Every structure is written in structure tokens, then in C-alpha cells.
Amino acid sequence: MKKQSQILIIINLLLLLGYFNWSIYQKEQTLRDGQLVLFELAPVDPRSLMQGDYMNLRYREATSDLLVDTQVATHGYAVLNIDSNRVARIVRLKDALEPLNDNELVINYKIVNDRLFLGAESFFFEEGQDTLYQKATYGGLKVNAKGESLLVGLYDKDFLLIKPDR
């Protein structure tokens, strides 16, 4: 009986390790192959005393006029139109992936308390770098073909990645 328990524990650990590695692999694929889109940021308090140097991200698109439609699903895909500077604008919300037009991309969304969540909602940075990130105008997300996204950094008004002082 003891031997069976040990084997079961080892199998569970291997499965957990496999799942964890698969998740990392998928995120690496999104970082490598995903399309960079920029979402304009709404003004926020750039620091959180409880969590250290941290910025709560609010995207202007999160208050989309499309939310007034009461028939909108709480989870789905936001279809984005991407301009020449890679800035994204939501053109419609759908509950399933669909064929897209040129310059369109989808990103997963969820609605909580009448607010649209599009991806990473917070950004942590090194202590003492708060003044550097206060000039952030855009949040940059890499988005894959399935609408999954990862925050890759904050960008200034000139669409340039803000890099920490070292």
C-alpha cells in the first residue's frame, strides 16, 4: 500500500510539472509570435503603498461604448482595429472567434462590475523607478491568434518602450 501511494504521488508531481512547463511554453510562444498592440492608459495612481512600486493599469478602451449593450456576454473576444502605431481600438465584442478583416485582431475580455478587463491590470517595477513610469501613455500587450495576451511593458507618448534606469 505504501509503495502505491509513493507511485501515485510521483505521478501527480510529474503531471503537475508537465502542466507547469506546458503553461510556460505557451506564454513563451505568445511572447515570440504574438502581435504587439498598445492600449492607451487612463490616469491612475502610480504607486501602491501595500505592494511596493506598482502601477494599477486602466485602459481607456475598458470603458468602451460597446458596454451599454446589455446583451454583451461577460466573457468573450474584443475585436480590435490596429492603427499604424499599433494602437488598438475596440470595434466590436463577440462571444466566439470569427474571421477578421485586415488590421483586426482579437483579445480575450471579461466584464466585471461594468468594466472591461483586457489583460494584465497591474505592472510592477523596481523601487525608485516610479517617476520614469509616470510618463507611460500606453500598455503594450503581445496577443496571439487565440486572443491570449501578456503584458510586455509600458510605452511613452512616442510609442517607445520605457526601459528602467540601470
3D architecture notes:
- With 166 residues, the chain is α+β, with helices and mostly antiparallel strands.
- Helices cover 22% and strands 31% of the residues.
- The strands form three sheets. The protein has a four-stranded antiparallel β-sheet, with no helix packed on it. It has a three-stranded antiparallel β-sheet with strand order 1-8-9.
- The chain is globular, with a radius of gyration of 19 Å.
- The N and C termini lie far apart (56 Å).
Summarize the structure.
The protein is α+β, with helices and mostly antiparallel strands. It has helices at residues 2-33, 130-133; strands spanning 35-40, 54-56, 75-82, 88-94, 104-112, 115-117, 122-124, 138-143, 149-155.
Q: Whole-Å distance between the termini?
A: 56 Å
Outline type? globular
Work out the radius of gyration: 19 Å
**Contiguous uncertain segments of 5+ residues:** none
H/I helix tally: 2
Biggest sheet record:
4 strands, antiparallel
| Proportion in β-strands | 25-35%
Strand order of the largest sheet: 4-3-5-6
